[in-house]
Write a structure and sequence with these properties.
The complex is a heterodimer of chains A (about 190) and B (about 150). By secondary structure, chain A is mainly alpha-helical. Chain A is built from nine helices and no strands. Classes of the chains: A mainly alpha (about 190), B mainly alpha (about 150). At the A-B interface, α2, α3, α6, α7 and α9 of A face α1, α3 and α4 of B.
């Protein structure tokens, strides 16, 4: 969606047009859900946090600055919502689903691979998700925005409100740590 | 160039963020350092390439729209302020009524005591000896005497 379209929709929302907000949700729901799912490693929590993101955005439409892109604003809300969720106290976190359990696996085969390929893909996905889950939330946020969402360094800096230098060093560290965590899995293959 | 700095440059190079001069320096280091070449090959594998892109579940947008509260209209701040003040006033009135009723009841039960004394809950002393409170007080008194 073009930025001018986004601004037009935002203006209509501010005027009380709920249909305009429905258009925004439809347009960005997959990106926000995908981001939350990879930050949290859990589909059920991802849906809750993606919903919370859109509800927060709606309540704060007045604060949106047209000089930034709508998707970076939504990404920022989503990342903060997920990080807050991950920082919940221990007594709440024990009710979360297991980080390596059935609920967590985000396998989503689109083609029809053979059973062996499917098994291998699932093992790889599980290994990657477990490795991702072992990164600190800050490193996870930058690497997901870079590698999965495909954001440029400047966009990540804007989204997370950190400097370009911090983005670069965090991405480099996240890649190194992921490489270490996945080394064992790849060596077994 | 040392290996620690090279790791940062390898990551930047994968994203096309290096200047030609930095690229040349990195290439020169990689030629002479096997460990960094291995690290670079590992990073080139696109670490998260195995992960699928996920779409929001069916009915997601309808659920979001169903949970939306109306956006507060612009220019109605004074109405919200008035509602807040009214809320505080009603709550204060309820608390004050409760306090006055309690004081009135206490004055009727024990006319010789002042309102301040009744608020200290001395009105309910002493606890009857057979009650749980009475047993507890007796036990603590015996312990204190010892």
């Amino acid at each position: 969606m073009r930025r001018s379209d986004d601004i037009d929709l935002i203006n209509r929302c501010r005027g009380g047009d709920r249909a305009a907000y429905a258009e925004i949700v439809l347009c960005y729901q997959d990106r926000i859900y995908n981001l939350c799912a990879h930050l949290l490693g859990n589909r059920a929590e991802a849906e809750d946090m993606a919903q919370a993101t859109f509800l927060k955005a709606y309540r704060n439409l007045e604060k949106f600055q047209p000089r930034s892109a709508l998707y970076t604003w939504l990404y920022r809300i989503a990342v903060n919502t997920c990080l807050d969720h991950l920082r919940r106290p221990f007594f709440e976190s024990i009710f979360r689903r297991s980080a390596s359990g059935e609920e967590t696996r985000l396998d989503h085969p689109s083609a029809m691979p053979s059973p062996e390929e499917n098994m291998e893909n699932q093992q790889l996905q599980t290994a990657i998700l477990q490795a991702l889950g072992k990164l600190s939330p800050k490193l996870r946020a930058v690497i997901v925005l870079k590698e999965i969402e495909g954001l440029a360094y400047e966009e990540i800096a804007t989204t997370l409100e950190i400097s370009l230098g911090t983005v670069k060093s965090r991405i480099s560290r996240a890649r190194r740590e992921l490489q270490e965590l996945l080394k064992e899995f790849r060596e077994q293959k | 160039m040392n290996c620690a700095k090279t790791h940062g440059l390898i990551s930047l190079n994968l994203d096309g963020e290096l200047s030609p001069r930095e690229q040349a320096a990195l290439a020169a280091h990689l030629c002479g350092c096997r460990a960094c070449r291995v690290a670079e090959a590992g990073l080139r594998r696109q670490l998260l390439a195995g992960l699928p892109r996920l779409a929001a579940p069916a009915g997601f947008s309808a659920r979001v729209m169903g949970n939306l509260a109306p956006v507060p209209a612009r220019g109605l701040w004074w109405l919200r302020l008035l509602a807040g003040v009214a809320e505080v006033a009603v709550l204060s009135a309820i608390i004050l009524t409760g306090m006055l009723s309690g004081a009135d009841l206490a004055a009727r039960l024990s006319p010789e005591k002042t309102v301040a004394a009744t608020l200290a809950l001395d009105l309910f002393d002493p606890a009857p000896p057979d009650s749980l409170g009475g047993v507890y007080l007796t036990m603590t008194e015996v312990r204190d005497e010892k």
